[in-house]
User: Fold these one by one.
Assistant:
Number 1:
Amino acid sequence: MATTDASNIKRLQVRRFKPDESPKEHYLNAEKGLWSWLTSVDHKRIGLMYLASIAFFFLLGGILALVLRTELLSPARSFIDADVYNQIFTLHGAIMIFFFLVPSVPAALGNFVLPLQLGAKDVAFPRLNLASFYIYTIGAIFTLIAIFTGGIDTGWTFYTPYSAETSTNVMMMTLGIFILGFSSILTGVNFIVTIHKMRAPGLTWNKLPLMLWALYATSIIQVLATPVLAITVLLLAMERALGIGIFDPALGGDPVLYQHFFWFYSHPAVYIMIVPGFGVISEVISTFSRKTVFGYWAIALSSLAIAFIGFLVWGHHMFTAGQSSLASMVFSFLTFLVGIPTGIKIFNWLATMYKGSIDMKTPMLYAMVFLFLFTIGGFTGIMLGALVVDIHLHDTYYVVAHFHYVMMGGMVMAFLAGIHYWWPKMFGKMYNEFWAKIACGIIFIGFNMTFLPQFIMGAQGMPRRYYNYIDQFQPFHQFSTAGSYVLGVGFLIMATYLIHSLLRGKKAGSNPWGSRALEWQTSSPAPHHNFEHTPVIVNGPYDYHKPMSEFQLGIAHSHNGHHEGEKVDVETGTAQEKA
Amino acid sequence: MSGHHISSAKFLWSVGSALFFLTFITVAVTWVQIPAPWNIVVAIGIAAVKATIVVAFFMNLWWDSKFNSMLFVMSIIFFLLLIGITLLDTLYRVDPTPAF
Amino acid sequence: MSETSAVKERPEHLKHYFVDSDQQFDAAKMGMWVFLVTEILFFGGLFAAYIVYRSWYPELYLQASTELNTFWGTVNTAVLIGSSLTVAMAIRSAQLNQIKGLIINLWITISLAFIFMVIKFFEYTHKFEKGIFPGEYYTYEGIAHEKANIFFSIYYMMTGLHGVHVLIGIGLMIFLVVKAKKGAFSSAYYTPVEITGLYWHLVDVIWIFLFPLLYLID
C-alpha cells in the first residue's frame, strides 16, 4: 500500500488499467504440456479440469437416463431386466447428484470465477484445491469400480435395511461417496477463507458480487452438512462389514435413524446444488439488463437464510417413513418457511429486469428459462411440503417431476447460463450465438415434454422407480420418453457448437458483454495470475450508471514502482480513493 | 501483528492443572448418587467446562479473531439442531393402533 | 508490514498470492477452524446415534458401561490432556524460536499419544477375549440385555474413529519433527505447528466428551 494512516482509512494511489484485448500470454498457454495441467495449482486450470470431469459424468448420467426412458416406453420388459433397471436408476441418481450437480457450479465455475471476482491471484489454498480435484477423481474411480463389479440397486438414497443386505457392491460405492465428500468439504474450506481473507482493496462485504455471496452460503452448507453424510456412509459400510446393527431392527436398531442422518446432509445438499445457480442468475440478469440488482441485501442475505433454514427441513423426505407426527408437523411448517427467501429472489430478479436494457443473448435466455422452470419446481416443492398432500404424492412421479424441475430446470439451466456467460473469459473465444439459442429452445421444449406429464402421472398414482406400470400411464411415459430424446438432441447441438468454438471460434475481447464485474476487467482468456495489477474497488458490483473506467482501477505502483504519484484519470475526477 | 498471542509457560501449566483437577471432579462426581437426568446434565456440564477451557486457552480462541469463535459456536449449534430435531421424532413415536 | 516497492524481499514461506505473512497465517488458521467445524459435525453424527439409543435403552447403557474400565479411561483422559499441554508448549517454543524445545515437546506429545493408543489396545483386546466384538460378532453373555451389542457397536465406532484421529495426529506430528529438524520452522513461520496443534486439541476435546458418556454412566 502507498501510505498507511493512523486511522482506519487507507489512501491509495490508483490508476486505470485497461485490459489487453489480444493477450499473447494467458493461463492456457502459460505452461505447456499435460503434466503442467495435471499438477497445476492455478484455480482456473483446476476449474477447467473439474469442468471436463463433470461434463463426462453428465454425459454418462444422461445416457443412463435415456436408457431408463427407453425401457419405460412399454410396460413390463422392453429390453432390460428389472434388476438391471434398478441398477440403472440408482446410478443415474448417484452420478448426477454426487458427480455432476454438487461439484458443478462450486467446483467448476466457482473455482474459475471466485478469485477473479475477488481481485485475488488465486484461492487461499491452491494446493488443497488441486488435492480436492484429485480426491474427487479417486472417489469417481471407486464409483466406476462399483458399477463394474456388481453394480448397486438400492436407489441413490441407499436406504437400510436393503442397502445393508443386498449383494450388490454397496461398499465400494459408499467408499467412493465418502472420499468424494472430502473434495466437497475442502472446496468449501478454501472458498470461505478466500472470501474472508483475500478480497481486493475496497471490496467490502456490501460490494461483494452476489455470485460470491452465493458461493459463500454454499460453502457454509458444504462444510456443515457433508461430514454428516460421511459418518452416515461410514456407518452403512460398518453395518455391512461388521453387522453393527444401528440401523437393523433385528439387532435392535432403527432404519429411520439412517434416514435422519442421510437426509440431514441430502436436503442441504440440494441447496448446495441450487444456491450457486442463484448466484449465476444474479450475475447474468444484471449484466444483460445493464442494471443494478434490485434488493442487493435481500438476495445476499436470502442465500444465507436458505442455507440456515435448509438445515431444518430434512424430515420432509420422511413423512411416510414412520416418523413421529410431531416431527412431521414441525418439518412441514419449516419447509414452507424455506420457500420464502427463494421467492424473494425470484421477485428481485424480475424487478431487476424491469426498466432495464435487456440484451437477449444466450446466457440471458437460459436465465429466463431458469426463472420459468425453477418457479414451477419450487411451487411443486411447496405442494409436496404440505404434510397431508405428501402422503398421497410421496414416492410417485410427482416427486420425480418436482426435483427434475428444480435440479435440471433450475440448476442445470443456471449452470448452462454460467457456461455460456463465462465461456469467453475461460477460452477467449465466442460460440455461435444462433445455434446456441436454437439449442436452448430445443432443450426447453424437450425438458417440458419429458417432465410435465410426470406431474400428472404422479398425481394419478404412478410410483417412482417402478419398472412396470399399468396401461393407463403408457401415453404419459411415451410422451416423456420422446421428450427425453429431444433433450438429447439439444445437448448434442450444444456440444457441437461449443467444441467448434474451441477449435475455430471467433476471438473474444476482454468484456464482450459490457459487464461491470471485475472478472471482465482483465483480458480473455484470463492472465496467468488473473490481474497484472492489484485491483481497487470503488463502486458497487452492478453500478451500471458509472463509467467503465471506474471498474478498471488498480494500485498505481504495485507492479514496477514507476507510476508513484501519478494521478488517476477517472471521469469523476478524484485522485485518491478511500479503501 | 495479528493472531500471534504467546502464552507464558506458567499460564499453560496452570490451564493444564485446572484440566487435571476437573478430570478428577468428573470421576468424583460419579461417586455421588445424582438422580437421572441430572447426572447426565452434571457430567456434560463439567465436560463442557473442560472443553471450553481447552478451546479458549489452549486453542487461543480467547485472543483470536471473533470469526473463528463464531465458527466454533456455529458448529455446536448445528450439532444441537441435528440431535434436537431427530429427538423430536425418536422420542415421540407412538405405536399406531389399527382402527380396524 | 507495508509493501513499499515491488523489489522488496519476500520471505521464503510467503506465497505469491498473499500480501504478507500475517495474512497467510490468519488464512491458514481460519482454514483449520473451518475444517474443525467439519470434524465436530462428523463426530456429531455418532453422538447423535449415542443419544438416540441411550434415550431408548437407558438400562442397557447402565449395565454395559460397567464393562468399561473407569481407571484406564481416566488415565487416558489425563494422558490426552497432558498431550494437549505439551503441544501448546511446543507451539510456544516455536513462537519463541526455540526449535530444540519445539522438537522435544513434539516428541513428548507423540509419546503421550502413543501411550493412549497402547492403553486403548489393551482395553480392546481385553474385551475381545470376553467375546465383546462389534456388531454381529458379539458373543459375550455377561450382560443381561438383548440389545447389548448396540451399546458396544456405538462404543467401538466412537472410540475407533477417535483412535484413527489419534493415529493421524501422531503421523502429522512426526512429520512436524522431521521438518523442524531440517530447520523449516522459526518464530517467523510456524504455521504447520499451529494448525496441527489446533487439530490435536480437538482430538482431546472429543475425548473429553467421550469419557464421561461412555465410561462414567453410573
Note: The longest helix of chain C spans residues 21-56.
Number 2:
Amino acid sequence: MLKYTLKRLLMMIPVLLGVSFVVFLLMYISPGDPAKMILGEMAEAQEVEALRESLGLNNGFWERFFTYMKDIVLYGDLGISYTTREPVFTEVMERFPVTLRLASSGVLVALLIGVPCGIIAATRQYSIFDHVATVLSLLGNSMPAFWMGILLILVFSVQLGLLPSSGYSSAEYMILPALTLGTSSAAVIMRMTRSSMLEVIRQDYIRTARSKGQRESIVIYFHALKNALIPVITAVGLQFGMLLGGSILTETIFSIPGIGKLMVDSIKSRNYPVVQGGVLILAVVFSFVNLGVDLLYAFVDPRIKSQYKGAKKNRKAAEEEQEEDEEDLEEEV
Amino acid sequence: MAEETRKNNPNAVEDISMYKKQSQFVQAWDRLRKNKVAIAGLVILVILILGGIFAEQLAPYGYDDQDVMRRFTAPCREFPFGTDNLGRCIYSRILYGARISLLIGFVATGMGAVAGTILGAFAGYYGSKTDNIIMRFCDVLQAIPSLLLAIAIAAALGSGLFNMMLAISIGAIPRYARTVRASILTVKDQEFIEAAHAIGASDARIILKHIFPNCLAPIIVQVTLGVAGSIINAASLSFIGLGVQAPTAEWGSMLSAGRQYVRDYWFVVMFPGLAIMTTILSLNLFGDGLRDALDPKLK
Amino acid sequence: MEKFLDIRDLNVEFKSDRGTVKAVNHVSFHINKGETIGLVGETGAGKTTTALSIMKLVPGPHGKIKSGEVLFEGEDLLKKSEKDMRKIRGGKISMIFQDPMTSLNPVVTVGDQIAEVIKLHNEKKSRQEMKEKAKQMLELVGIPASRYGDYPHQFSGGMKQRVVIAIALACNPELLIADEPTTALDVTIQAQVLELMAKLKKELNTSMILITHDLGVVAGECDHVAIMYAGEIVEYGSLKDIYKETKHPYTIGLFRSIPNVDKKDTRLIPIPGLMPDPANLPKGCYFAPRCQNKLPECDTCHPETLEVSPGHFVKCLRVQKEVESHG
C-alpha cells in the first residue's frame, strides 16, 4: 500500500507540472502589463520599467516559466497580487480553510442525502419513495448552484426569515451554502447509489447471504452496501471537483470570504495572478482528493488492494479484473 | 444462410453492413420513442430552440428596450414575467437568452467534442507515444475542475461570446477524447479492421469509414449530456461576470443582476432561473433516454 | 419410510412485461431421510425456482408462490414466518448455487463468509469457536485453514465452489439443495466436487436435492429422479424406473441425445425445437409441439399424472392409453 501511495504521489508530479504550465500560460496571455497593474495607472514609465526588470517580465517565455516553477517549488511563491501587493500564496491560503470547510460541508450534505436515499429507493424499487426520490434527483441535477442558492435565500431568508443569507460567522451561516453546494451532488450520488444497489442486489452472493438465514437488514446494509459503495466512491471523487467549482459560485452568492469569493473579486479588478493562483491551489487539492479516493477504493475493494500490492498469487486474474475496472471507469467518465 | 449469401454475392457483405448500421439507429429510435420521459425532454428542448431562433418574432419587446418608468412591474398581461431593474421585459429577454445559452451550449460542446474526438482517435488508433502524450494532456486538463478551468481561461482571454465558448469547450475535451479512445481500442483489433488493412485502405479511411461509425453512439450520448454541462458552465461564467457582456440577454447574467433585488421582486430571478432549470432538465431527460436507447446493455 | 420433505402441488409464477410466466406448475415430489433426488431438465424448466421455493427465496417482487405445500418434517414451510424461515435457511436446509464465481461476496473474506452462517445458527458459540469451526470446514473441503483471510478473487473456480459447499454444510443441514453444483467447473474438478459432496453427505446423513441437466451425474448420485419440463414433473421414479423403464417421450429424448460409448454406430438424436415460452404455454401437453410420438388429442388435452408402477409416475397421454389398453 505504501509503495502504491508513493507511486501515485510520484505520478502526480508531472500532472501538477502540467497544471502549473497551463496556469502560467494563461497568466502569460492575460491582457495588461503586470508592472503597470501593480503600480497603478499613474506610475512613471521608469518605475514601471524597473519593476518589469525586477519581476523578470522582460525575459523570454521559457525562462519566465522556469522562474515561476522555481518560485513555486522553493518558496511557494505564486506571484504578487496586483491590488494588495501581498504574495498571492499568502492571500489564497488565508482563505483556504473557509473554502475547505464549505466544500466538506457540501460533500457531507451530498453523502448524507444521496447515499441513504439511494439505498431506500433501490430496496423499494418502484415504490412511491423511489419515484419521488428519482424525480427530485432529476430536478436537483438540473439546478445550477447559483440558482439553488438564490432559491434557498428566497425561501429560508426572505420568506421564512429562518436563516441568514450572507456572511460567515457561526455554524448557521453554513447551512444554506452547504445545501446549495451539496444538492446537485446529492442528486448525482443518489442516482449512482440507487443503480449500483439495484445491480448488486441482483447478484448471486446476495442470494447466498439470504440462503444462510441472514436477516434482510444485514444482507442489504452489509453484504450489498459494501459492494455497491465502490462505484459510489468514484462518483464522490468526481463530485468533489464539481464542488470546488461550485464553491466559487456559492461563496459569491452568500458572501463567504473563501478562495472563490477572492477569485471572483479578483476577476472584477483584473487581478489575474490571484485568479490563476486560486485555480492552481484548488487543482492541487482536487488531485489529492482523487488520490485519497483511489486509496479509499483499495480499502473497500480487496480485489484492487491486491493489485496495488502487486500480489503474484493471482496476477493473471487481477490483470483481467483491472482491465474490466478500467473499462468501467472510462464508461463512467 | 449468411455464409451462402456471402459466397454467392460479394456485394452482400456491404449490404448487410449497411442494413446493420441503419437498423442500429432505427432500433434506437424505436426504443427512444417508447420512452415518454425522454420524448417529453425532446419536445421541451425543441420548443426552447424554436423560441431562441424566432426570438425576434415571438418577443413582444427587444432585449434592451429600457424604460425606467416601468421598472419592476410584477407579472401582468403586458409583461408575463414582469420587468427588471431597467424596465426591460423579462419574458423577451428570456427568449433572447435562450438563443445565447443554447448557442453557447451546442457550439462549445461541439468544439470540445470535435477536438476531443480527433485527439481520442489519434490516441486510440496510433497508441504508444501518441497515446501517452494525448492522455497525459487529458490528465492535466482533468486535474482542474471544469468550471475552474473555464474561469481561468475566460479570465485570461477576456470576456466575450467566443472566448466564453472556447473556455468551456477546452474543459470538455478530455471526456470525449477518453470516450473515443476507449471505443477505438475495443474496435481496433477486430477482424474487419484487419481486413481493411489487408486490402490496403489508408489510415484516414479506416478511421473515418470503419472505426468512427462504431464510436458514434457513445459520442452522441456524451454530447447530449455535455450540452447541459456547458450551459451551466456558461451561465456560471456570466453569473460571476466573466461571460457575455451587458446588455446582451443571458440567463446567468440576468440572475446575477437580479440577485440584489430578490428581497422585493422575486420574479426578477425566478423566471431566468426556471428557464435554465427547464433547459438543463430537458437535456438531461433526453440524454438519459438516448443513452438507454443507444446502449441497451447499460440499462 | 417417513416422508422427510414432501412437496405438494407447488405453483410458482413470475409477473413480467409479457404477462404471467408460469415457472412451476403442479409440482409434487418427496424425499426420504438420507436419500438423494435428482431434478433433471433443460435450462428454464423450473428446477431452480422449485429449489428456491423450498427456501422461500423466490426473487420478489415479480416472483410469487401461488399455491401448494412444502412439508418439511411435517410442517408447511410456506406458512412459516420470515423469522422462522431464517432459522431454517442455512441451518436445517442449505443450498449450493450454480455459479461459484458469483456466489461469494467479493469484498468479504471466505473465512468470514463461512463463519457468518455458523454464527447465525449457533448463537452460543464464541467468536473464537466460530472461527475455529470455519477453519475446520475449510479443511474439510480440502482448503488449507491458513487461507481463512483470503478473498474470493484469490481462489480458482473449483476452490470457490468448495467454499460454497463449506458454507452449505457448515451447520450440518438435514437437507442440502445443490443447484448444478458442477456445471461451471472443469470436468476433472467436477468429479472432485461430486465425490466431496457424496462423502460429506454420507458422513452427515444429509438428504439432497441435486439439480442438474447431466444424466450421467444423476446415475452416479441419486436414488430417485424427477424429470422436469416447462415447469412440470413429466416423469418421476426410482433411478431404475427412469433409466431402465423410461416411459415419457421427453425422457426418452433426453437419453437419446447423450453419446453412448458402447454403441459407436448409433447417432445422437436431438430433440427438435425449443421449450415453449413459459408465458404462453400450449393448451394440451406442454411437450406436444416437440413430441415425435404424439396423438391427436395431445394438442388439446393436458395429461394427468399416472402411476404406471409403484412409485413410477408419468405424465403422458400415450402412456396412459397403453396402460389402459393392457388393462
Note: Chain C touches chain A through 35 residues (CB under 8 Å).
